[in-house]
Write a structure and sequence with these properties.
- The chain is α/β, with parallel strands linked by helices.
- Among the domains are: about 90 residues, Arc Repressor Mutant, subunit A, CATH 1.10.10; about 100 residues, 3-Layer(aba) Sandwich (D-Maltodextrin-Binding Protein, domain 2).
- The protein is about 40% helix and about 20% strand.
- It has ten helices and twelve strands.
- The strands form four sheets. The chain has a five-stranded mixed beta sheet with strand order 4-3-5-12-6, sandwiched between helices.
- The radius of gyration is 22 Å and the shape is elongated.
Length: about 300
Amino acid sequence: MTLKQLRYVVAVAETGNITEAAKKLFIAQPSLTFAIQELEKEYDITIFNRTRKGIELTVDGEEFLGYARQVLEQTYLIEERYTGNISGKPRFCVSSQHYSFVVEAFVELLKEFEGSKYEFHIRETQTYDIIEDVARHKSEIGVLFINDFNETIIRKTLRDNHLIFEPLFTAKPHVFIGKNSPLANKKKIKLEDLAHYPRLSYEQGDHNSFYFSEEILSVVDADKELIVRDRATLFNLLIGMNGYTICSGVISEELNGPNIIAKPLDVDEHMEIGYILHESIKPSPLTRKYIAHLKKVI
């Protein structure tokens, strides 16, 4: 076994495609295939199943991938500490719904690598894509919410994809509005107060079901709907159109500025926000550090 072979396994797992992984690694596809086959032969396991859809990890492969990532991360740290020469880059990826505390924790993790080489990804994306990213090992961790309405569907989808949900905190619903909104002076906002204003929500693509909505109370009817894909657009429309969105209420003024405020929503609901991991892979040192930063930021 070589470190190069471990890097090959990680690249194939992340891309789900031998051809794409070979391009990423700048090697010939037959060489990549042979290297992985030699590794499988050495340990008498099958790491990948070859299907019409591409490459999929086996159960043994998922366990092997977890060990491979940990070995590579430790190698990067040793090389940086004692030689200053790094043959590769530590890699980390988180997929999440649109939460500022996720970005804050990501920034804190990045600060630990100031002056070093790294390749970190943060994907604010659709709910089903978060689940798929972690299930397919594109991301080490995902962040989303569960409540009474979506719990049955979300937990079933997580089980079907061999993922576990670990709660971080429970939040009461809040309304994000611009600081100059006509609703800004209210201590608490009622649902009827929102009737005349545009409701903003995040697009969920092919899985645009109420159960995968990022916004709580998505089944409540609204006359004016604005659907967006990114947080900057949503915030601009909150301000420009006196719109609103219903969310956890957790926001970072340092990252998002002072123009968006959160007001409690007067409803008997809650959101349990947490992170998801693959059940068969032990969290890597980077993942554990990121979880610690999440908890600290929260």
